[in-house]
Design brief:
With 120 residues, the chain is mainly beta. The chain contains no helices and eleven strands. Strands 2, 4, 5, 6, 9, 10 and 11 form a seven-stranded mixed beta sheet that branches. Strand 4 and strand 5 form a beta hairpin.
Length: 120
């Protein structure tokens, strides 16, 4: 597994932007598929955006497509989520995750999360 630490959350007005970062430990960061999930109050955790290990493939939830961008810096071992045109419904705890075990379904390493609050 890998240790993941998110940062960059905060309070922002609707229409504003935030950039989340996820710093990863370990020597094989570049080999991992990674993603951002979020959990809003009273709702289940949902996938927001994902990025393949080689950067060739990205996927976005319909609710954020065109507003959010996932990216990574392999040298700095950091995953990013650029969030623009934020809406109150984007309010949630955002989690960074990585798939470090190819034979195990799903993502197996999770950060502690960072709170994003969008005021109307």
């Amino acid at each position: 597994q890998v240790q993941l630490v998110e940062s960059g959350g905060g309070l922002v007005q609707a229409g504003g932007s935030l950039r989340l970062s996820c710093a990863a430990s370990g020597r094989t960061f570049a080999n991992y598929n990674m993603a951002w999930f979020r959990r809003a109050p009273g709702k289940e955790r949902e996938s927001v955006a994902s990025l393949s290990w080689n950067g060739d493939s990205t996927h976005y939830a319909d609710s954020v497509r065109g507003r959010f961008t996932i990216s990574r810096d392999a040298i700095k071992k950091t995953l990013f989520l650029q969030m623009n045109s934020l809406k109150p419904e984007d309010t949630a705890v955002y989690y960074c995750t990585a798939k470090t075990r190819p034979t195990v379904p799903g993502y197996d390493s999770w950060g502690q999360g960072t709170q994003v609050t969008v005021s109307s």
